[in-house]
Amino acid sequence: MGIRFSVLASGSTGNAMVVATAESKVLIDAGLSAKKVDQLLKEKDMSASELDAILVTHEHADHIKGLGAMARKYDLPVYANEKTWAALDKQIGEIAEDKRCVMDTGDFRNFGELRVESYGISHDAAEPVGYCFYEGDQKLSLATDLGYMSSKVKEQIRDSDVLVLESNHDIEMLRMGKYPWNIKRRILSDLGHLSNEAAGIGLCDVMTSRTKRVYLAHLSRDHNLMDLARLTVNNMVEDRLSADDHRAKLMDTYYDRATEWDRLDEE
């Protein structure tokens, strides 16, 4: 069967994604209530009791809201690097010692035939990471909460069959929005979030003939629109690639519902 996945929720109000193979299932982040994560998994015909682990990208509330409750209710191992664990301890309650698994940035872990690699990203958290997932010759990459797309990140996620990529905000909408300037400056900084324009420019460097689909993720509800994100990213790609260059299909994500299952072996 290879890899399949669903972005259960994506955005400033909560983030979670499930990745599965024939034998293994992992949850990446639990940024909604445990009850809501349970509901979204059931909508995908899956129970949280089937999960092998929860992987954590970083300690911000929109990524860990339901983490402690999920781990305790289903007795699940939780994987994060040491700095993230130190930041999590004050927020998620007690986790059994044998379920506190340290996965250093840059390390691999195998869950059955699913191979998971973490990589460092630029964001205002203790030690934030993205993840790449491999099974056979298939590759799925998750790259959100990026202040900017560094050359190392580009190298890491290049040649993905499917990519989940942050397209957080429209710059002008953010600049004209209601947030205080210090918050706007943080979002626009190298430790903030990737704009639609930056997502499109970065995508040109990592998209190859192998890349089938790109899910635009972690959209701001206040400073972005899905149609605008898709249009801007597409325009950036069209401006920078030649007519003969490959273009992946742009896909939507949602803050309030899950995407359909995506199988990497499907065109």
Automatic annotation (TrEMBL):
Catalysed reactions listed for this entry: 3',5'-cyclic UMP + H2O = UMP + H(+); 3',5'-cyclic CMP + H2O = CMP + H(+)
Domain of life: Bacteria
Organism encoding this protein: Paenibacillus radicis (ex Xue et al. 2023)
Residues making up the signal peptide according to the UniProt record: none
Main function: Counteracts the endogenous Pycsar antiviral defense system. Phosphodiesterase that enables metal-dependent hydrolysis of host cyclic nucleotide Pycsar defense signals such as cCMP and cUMP.
The protein, known as: MBL fold metallo-hydrolase
InterPro entries to which the protein is assigned, alphabetical: Metallo-B-lactamas (IPR001279), RibonucZ/Hydroxyglut_hydro (IPR036866), WalJ/YycJ-like (IPR052533)
Residues covered by the Metallo-beta-lactamase domain: 13-191
